[in-house]
Amino acid sequence: MMTETVEMIHEDALPGEERKLHPQPEWQPRYPGSGRLDGKVAIVTGADSGIGRAVAALFAREGANVVIAYLCEHEDAAETEKIVRAEGRQSLVFAGDLGEKAICDELVQRTMAAFGRIDVLVNNAGEQHPDKNIEDITEEQLRRTFQTNIFSMFFLTQAVMPHLREGAAIINCTSVTMYKGSEELLDYSSTKGAIAAFTRSLSENLVGKGIRVNAVAPGPIWTPLNPFGGATKEKLAHFGESTPMARPGQPNEVAPSFLFLACEDSSYMSGQVLHPNGGMIVGS
Length: 284
Description:
The protein has helices at about 50-60, 75-85, 100-115, 140-160, 175-180, 185-205, 235, 250-260; strands at about 40-45, 65-70, 90-95, 120-125, 170-175, 210-215, 275. By secondary structure, it is α/β, with parallel strands linked by helices. The protein has a seven-stranded parallel β-sheet, with helices on both faces. Helix 1 runs parallel beside helix 2 and helix 3 runs parallel beside helix 4. Belongs to the short-chain dehydrogenases/reductases (SDR) family. Pfam families: adh_short_C2. This is NAD(P)-dependent dehydrogenase (Short-subunit alcohol dehydrogenase family). InterPro entries: NAD(P)-bd_dom_sf, Sc_DH/Rdtase_CS, SDR_fam.
């Protein structure tokens, strides 16, 4: 039970600040690096906090220079930058709405100017807005959720394609809600289904070029997305208890799935989805 959870600001403060979360999410890598991403450059979206921060930290420990893309939480992004640099790696911090194609193009241009290459793209940024009734989902919210969660993946993938070489990897973040559904996250769950289909289709499209495309479908993970995404105080108090492990996961329990799919350990995998979800059995 998340007994220490304080009352959070909700949707008007999206995407939310990790530094205000109690208890603090665990992003720290759990083991020494082994050079699995030495010399590589990774773009990680939503890297200011949550799963994105944990992925950035682990990638840096494994030798990658990391581009920290985020929307507007500047203090959180600055903390992620410190984490990456503490691992002895270079970083580029980029703020912008990736639901806009021009912003995605700019991000890639700045990455190439700074590092001259792109090896890994992690499409992780997302937002959610709980609604009990489908009639409560406004047209503005519906467009916004799809723009952030799936349009951004199309735009950013289009932007990086001229720069990806054989051996590059794209990893998309979908969700357990794609498989199990969520009665209060209709638009969010729909985008996650689109992401799974996008992953499998893009894999088929790019596998001949030697570019692998996979996804990760986390279960309930303790990140700013949930309290700042409109979850009630009551729901947060029991967050993650419905999983077989009876607890929420931590970002650093999800990040190794992204690392595995980013490095050569998964060289014979494409079009697949990994499920760090606390033991829930879902169709893959």
